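Lab channel / #folding
Pinned by the channel admin:
"Please post every new chain as: sequence first, then the structure tokens as a reply. Keep commentary short and put observations after the output so the thread stays searchable."

First post following the new format, from NK:
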Amino acid sequence: MTTDHQSHDHDHDDGCSDTADDDPRRVRVVAGLADISAEAFDACANPEDRPFNPFVEHAFLQSLEEAGCVGKGTGWHPQHLVLEDGEGEILGVMPAYLKTHSRGEYIFDHAFAEAYHRAGGQYYPKLQVAVPFTPVPGPRILVRPGAEAQLNEQILAGAAVEVARRHNVSSVHVTFLEEEAWQRLGALGFLQRTDQQFHFANPGYGSFDDFLQTLASRKRKALRKEREQALSDGITIEHVSGADLTEAHWDAFYEFYIDTSDRKWGDPYLNRSFFTLLGERMPESCLLIMAKRDGRYIAGALNLIGGDCLYGRYWGSIEHHPFLHFEVCYYQAIDFAIAHGLARVEAGAQGQHKLARGYVPETTYSAHWFADPGLSSAVERYLKSERLEIERANQILAEYAPYKKG
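Reply from TO:
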């Protein structure tokens, strides 16, 4: 097996796959999704035996590139890995980016970068295996199902390390991957990291009131009051998806998105073109929850609809109304998930305030490889204690969930 015709001349204890010399499989690196067949890519990203994840669809990632949200001048330079058999058929893909900063990742490694720079090392560029600007757990090494799926995953993981070595970069980071894949990368020598999010679980509620009945009395009354107050100023809510989405909807939502970006981050990660492309290519996966007052939209949240999950992504508003954020982002998402039989709602990164609204702590996973043994050892010691802290925090926070005890 070869990687872009480059031979493997390093030991196999660094996350690289050990394959026979006569293995016809090869990994090539491409600088854009346009060079990968969308049909073949999606057969790896969303095979029929797994719940659909919209963020690893070719259309989603290609829209980011085509709109210029990643690529030249962004610090996200596509270096996607493609595994092919001897006949050129795609067996797996690994969306990856050479990065010159740590923005837009939500798994923070700034402390690692600063420590390495103080020690005289060069942390950037690094290789990031991720969905840009998207803290949504899901598959990251995308392989066709079958008897050799895990071997193909291992080959791609090894090829990522090979690419990192060839480019003389500091590290490989696989962020927001699924737990089982995280365990397998750990067995290959990647360092394991955990973090925390808050998700809503739908065990099969028939209505929002069914969900409320599972809460302690005081919490139930508080949620009802929040919902009433959120809509008390003549505000109405619309759900817009599929063919009903128009450029006017995206114009209004983008105004909200920019307002939030300006206040939180300064420079927005996404531009207006991206939302047009997303609406054109994946309309049935998009759900805009929009708040309207006096005939105009004043707030909104973009969600993406998966096979078993509603993913909350971006929120913004141009008017302040008490509890409107909670109504649009959390309660309306729960309503939608229950009505459409979705198993959970994932409402993005961080946010302990979600706990009181029925969202409980869940562990998220990332895997990391560092070229410098000294940096790797230091990070490994830190991650060991960090994992324990995350586990303890999740246990403590779960005790404060609003649900009835027992």
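NK: The first helix runs from residue 38 to 45.
TO: also worth noting, The longest strand covers residues 191-201.
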